[in-house]
Amino acid sequence: MLRQVEGSLAVAETVARCRPQVISAYPISPQTHVVEHLSRLARTGELDHCAYLTVESEFAALSSLVGASAAGSRSYTATSSQGLLFMAEAVFNAAGLGLPIVMTVANRAVGAPINIWNDQGDSIAMRDAGWIQLYAADNQAAADLHVVAFRVAEELSVPVMVCMDGFVLTHAFEEVDVPDQHQVDAVLPPFRPRQLLDPAAPVSIGAMVGPEAYTEVRYLADHALRRALEVLPAAADEIGAVLGRPVPSLVQAHGCRGAGTVVVVMGSVLGTLSEVVDERVARGVRVGALGITCFRPFPASAVRAALCDADEVIVLERSLAAGEDGPLTADVARALAGTRARVRTVVAGLGGRPVTGTALHGLLDRAEGGRLGARTFLDLDRTVIDRELRRSAAQEVAP
Amino acid sequence: MLQVRIHGRGGQGVVTTSELLALACFVEGRHAQAFPSFGSERTGAPVASFVRIDDRPVRSHDPVSAPDAVLVQDPTLLRGGDVLAGLSPSGVLVVNLRGELSPEVRTAVGPDVRVLTVEASETALRLIGRDVPGPALLGALAAATGVVGVDALVAAVRERFTGRVADANADAVLETYSATLASAPEGGRHAPTG
After folding, report:
1. Contact: B61, A269; criterion CB under 8 Å
2. What's the complex ipTM?
3. I want to staple B11 with a disulfide (CB 3.0 to 4.6 A). Which of A90, A280, B43, B164 is the partner?
4. d(CA A15, CA A21)
5. Which residue in the set B18, B39, B65 is minimally distant from A358, CB to CB?
């Protein structure tokens, strides 16, 4: 049933209907409302057969889930920013051990400078950890993708992060059709762990692996992760059929057919961008938008297919890859190798700076006028930059 | 698309005001979105919240920069310039204020903006027992512009709150709605702007 609801609550209710058996979490903005609501559901008994652990840190949150998942429990946590970085060691362990934990990342900038607002620098920092990474464009997708996440995680024995823009989605009060219990039960069977810590049949999970086999273990983990490119669309289609609406899986193309210029984004900017694109298409401009739902594994074939008509590809990066153009740019450029498309980078919306429709129109004006460089920062205050560069240059002069 | 921006201070229920408006529009079968200006909110700090209302699903997630209506829960915020930023020249300004806007502010607002001053804090303190002026301001907005129906506002209040709190908030909506209609009888027939 369609309801007007906060994004965090829609996600928490959806997670509860996925029947997690262990939730372990430590609060951090802007993730807080998700875990607060889940703790409420656990306390009132609406979420039953679930152990809700309050722990002393994010590192403990995910570490306890490594144990819970290895012991055969469907396991869930949520975090943001410094919290995700603090659990980094366990993030890699969960993937390396093939534990199908699901985690919501309410995307928030990382420090320093400390900043509680939205960008995607936190989950991008965990890009190579071996988790499937899904990015929600709106709160309906954020809710639905959690069902997909549990299903695919357990099918592949690979952990999944569902990333949603902090505040922009977590705190937005919008209409969402939260999947109901019957629908979730129809597409998400009880968790059957691929490996299990069981006193009756003892095994070791997480033993040391030396040079003779480490490469093979890592190869197989990567192989399982890559299988998501086939498993995800099939699962999303099946879940979408039950929910009665399309559920995104790899990419979301908006008007890419015949579009000479396409802007590629991850997360909630896709909505604002789609409005901008529609306004320009109505004026006869050939422009489109491509949302990347699955960032890891990277769906290179789907991206290449969606961008087959594009001459100009503008990749909007919601994080800063210091010393490089941007992680999404690199992946998109590799997917387009050998095509005629020119790929440009626009770094946008760092630390909560809004990516406005006005700014996106301005960006496309510049692109259409041939005035967009290889790497641009959207809405950058040039006077501050120039002043600081002059000051540091003056300090460097005299040894 | 109709866009509304609500200004107030932390603790005044600014986010709740925006969510009530969005919920009321949803009750009416329209599409709406409410979201706060995100910050480390503290009691007393300036807070803004945004509402978009449309006949089709709302996709944009950027802050409202060109509102059709601005609601001001604390009139001291009018001393800065941000509260009026981008307000449509033919828009609506609803201010929680006893008396009239100062001449300087009235000039800054622009001649074609409809201004309503509402003693919303007094109403809230008397009926709800807390200085949460939002429901009264929404009642005035509904009466003056018709952007949302008063029945839908009351339904939203009753979905959000229960018991005596729901009754008191509904009374605040209804009282200001009636008072605004009585003082500006042509108001309720205005078509929504934007």
Report:
1. yes
2. 0.92
3. B43
4. 11
5. B65
